[in-house]
Amino acid sequence: MGSRGRAPKPPEEAAGHRKRTVVELLPPSGERPIPPAPSGLLASVRAKWDIYWRSEVGTVATEVDLFAVERFFLYYDEWERCIKQFRKTRYVEGSAGQIRLSPMAAHIMRLEGVMLRLQTVLGLDPMARARLGISIGQARLTVAELNRMASESPDDQDVEAETETVEGWEEA
């Protein structure tokens, strides 16, 4: 599957006659119960299921989306299992005794293709959220801010501001 084109411009920068809305994800107002994960998932995948439903993206998912979300996590579980097996046995003996890559590699690639499509549909990466018109926080700088930063001399810049960590991320 090819690219779906550029991410749309923010509504305030868009030109033309079409109206486009941005869906801003806000933290849920109340504690929403997490749907039960499909049975048989690995513990690591169940943990990611919980993370998804507690995330900003999970707050906009509704009951009608549950089938697609479950499918994504079932594929993800299968991918995790296949990767573990592939790491143990990367090469196998072919029918004529030759060494060849395990057929598990092709299965992993097919799973990744399906997962990527579902990931895009569900808005599970920044570009997919932008294409869906979902905005999480504001990370854009205005032209005036960029010009101000470019005109400052290196001595004027706040060194601490350059080394701040984003909330939830640790510095390496």
Report what the structure shows.
The structure is a single chain. The protein has one domain (36-161). The protein is built from seven helices and four strands, in the order βαααββααβαα. A hairpin with a 5-residue loop joins strand 2 and strand 3. The protein is mainly alpha-helical and 172 residues long. The protein has helices spanning 43-54, 56-60, 66-88, 104-122, 126-131, 143-151, 159-162; strands at residues 23-24, 91-93, 99-101, 134-135. The strands form two sheets. Strands 1-4 form a two-stranded parallel sheet.
Number of individual domains: 1
Task: Supply the number of helical segments.
Answer: 7
Major beta-sheet overview:
2 strands, parallel
End-to-end separation: 34 Å
**Class from secondary-structure proportions:** mainly alpha
- Calculate Rg over CA atoms: 22 Å
Number of strands: 4
Percent helix:
40-55%
> What does the overall shape look like?
extended
Strand order in the sheet with the most strands: 1-4
Strand content: 5-15%
Mean pLDDT score, rounded? 79
Q: What is the helix/strand order?
A: EHHHEEHHEHH
Oligomer: single chain
Residue windows where pLDDT falls under 50 for at least 5 positions: 159-166, 168-172
